[in-house]
Amino acid sequence: MLSNLGSKVFIGGNLGNPLSDAAIKGLSSSFLEPFEVAVVEVSSYQMEIPHKHFCPSVAVLLNLTPDHLERHKTMRNYAMTKCRLFSHMNGSKLAVLPIGNQHLNEALKDHVSKCNVVWIGDFPGVKVDMVKKVANFRLPTIGVASQIQLGALKAIGNHNYYNAAVAAFCVLALDVGIDGEAISAIMGTLHAPPHRMQIVYSDTRGITWVDDSKATNVEATYTALTGLNEQKSVVLLGGLAKVLDIQGSCGFERLVDPLKYHRCVITFGSSGSMIQKTLWAAGLSIPCIKATNLEDAVNVARNVARLGLSSFHAKNLQQEKAIYASNSIAKDCGYTYKI
């Protein structure tokens, strides 16, 4: 968003180039175009390292769901670690968090005291009207009161509209000379990052392949499936599942409800059998097919999408009863599958 509006931006941190690269370039006498803004992803693992000087102008914690608990042990510890992001922020600096999360609300008491706190889903903060595809912003303390049109956004899934709205809110809060009208004008030029509800292929039969392999936990997959309720998708679930609690649960039973709006599920990979059995035990109401590996899953998904389940089963009687993927459906581990 900032780049499309002409700002010189460093993008990195946990998702790519280390932040130290920006510092080194900034100190170089040969670096003629200094960065105006650094957009940095910071992981909870990095936040475990004590720091005294990390102080963003705007810091966002989009959500808190069960993840990395093999390291953090409890949701309380996880929330406390994530909220270290805000520890040294003060004055007009802005902390942006989701409304109504008990663990975050408790962690805020120890880590946020001297900066502005705003909310995703309430005012002061940002609220999204998904029917009208409009984001409304209110932050009286720094004079932000604006509205952004999201309708032109090229994205799949309701959560991506919220992501775009939060990004726009952060840009406005940075006060770098960009207004709501300018952001609305470039909304149609934005697209999802790789492996995050990314459309990787659309064929002549009207079948669209969506790669959401960055959805590496059940909660992220739940959110994506909820945003695809009207698509009647063939859903690929696989890979190596994360354990969510001390009882050894991986949480896939949570997906039974959003999956009822879709056509079928195809499981694969190391946890494919476990996912299939968990879904069946939880009362999955749509067919579930177990594939041997990712390539097989892609082939099965293509056939189901093109032929329909009845025709597919007539030609594949050896299959167990039985296009979104929370592991890569078209690109994985350096290989590309023809779809």
UniProtKB/TrEMBL annotation:
Superkingdom of source: Eukaryota
Record has Ligase as a keyword: yes
The entry's keywords: ATP-binding, Cytoplasm, Ligase, Nucleotide-binding
UniProt KW Ligase keyword: yes
Domain Mur ligase central residue range list: 34-170
Subcellular location: Cytoplasm
Pathway note: Cell wall biogenesis; peptidoglycan biosynthesis
Gene3D superfamilies xrefs: Mur ligase, C-terminal domain, Mur-like, catalytic domain
Entry GO terms, CC: cytoplasm
GO molecular function: ATP binding; UDP-N-acetylmuramoylalanine-D-glutamate ligase activity
One GO biological process term: cell division
Database matches in PANTHER family: UDP-N-ACETYLMURAMOYLALANINE--D-GLUTAMATE LIGASE (PTHR43692:SF1)
Name of the featured protein: Mur ligase central domain-containing protein
Species assigned in the record: Nelumbo nucifera
